[in-house]
Amino acid sequence: MIVRQFIQWLRTASAGDRADATSALARAYLYSDLSPDDRAAAEGAMLMLLDDPSPLVRRALADVFAASQAAPPAVVYALAGDQPEIASTILERSPLLVDADLVDHVATGSPAIQAAIASRFGLPRAVAAAVAEVGTAHACLVLIENPDADVVSFSLDRIVERHGHLAAIREALADRADLPAATRQAMLAKLSATLADFVAAREWLEDDRARRIAKEACERATVALAAQVAGDEIRPLIRHLCASGQLTAGLVLRAVLCGNTRLFEEALAELSGLTLARVSAIVHDRGGGSFRALYHKAGLPPSLYPAFREVIEAMQASGFVGDVDGATRLKRRMIERVLTRCADAALGDIEPLMTLLRRFATEAAREEARLFCDEIAAESVAAPVQRLAAA
Q1: Residue 37's pLDDT is what?
Q2: Which of 106, 125, 143, 200 has the greatest count of CB atoms below 10 A from its CB?
């Protein structure tokens, strides 16, 4: 009887009054001890209210039912398909929606809908993957920043691939402690490409030169990253570099000229198909007879072989670098030795190799100069403090 009177009253009430009454009816449905007949009548009335022309009424239903397990499913499903301002409340919180429902709304919904789903507590892996695959940049950012979302590395890679050119996405990803090394490297590559496009578009540098500088910066950062990652992450990083076409002879040469033998040996093992133990034994073999065969089996260009051979001999003579810091920067003396040996050797056309080595030598010299200046600056700051302490 009360529900019938309520329905009659709705015809003349204002939108605000209808919204207040709808909210009261929805709470009564959830929390009052209604008879089965009254409960059925109340649900029927709320189904009718889904057609109310005022969004205030439908929003009142969404606010009450959003987080309730006892809400009438038909009402919840209908509200999930309402306009974004109403549907977002349901899609963000309702426990009645299953993964398939959420994936469907991600695929067909507006940016606001995608962002609401991405912010759900305990977001399942399949739904997170859907957001990563088709979600807007904002939805992906919400997903990355959601600590309760189950986001696997494949989804993170897809976000980098689609939105890695955006600084906000890169910063949010960089803050994640669980970000794999391969994904971090993909971010580096995306950043270098974005910067190259930016510089070339403004004609600050020629396109080819801008891309070469960006590529070298990416390789430098990649070697530094490889020197710092855990042992079980280095091979996935190498495979990512292979798959993306970044594991070039120049990158491998840079790694060994930095003394990063771990990256060097893992790269040779991946390229040659030999075990890491076998590759390591060949690299450390002072006889050096097997290194040429390993080098060619890895598919590296013959023109760069003299440089690799000289570096291996130099490292065997002086010892292999073991510290992380030392494996991130080019070794100037080693590069100069390789340059001298290659220039003195009676070889064919080695000008491309010499050009690459000269660039490495210039980079190493500039890095040494920067470090030297930093040390002087640090000493000049520390000296007054020491004098004050002595006084």
Answers
A1: 87
A2: 143
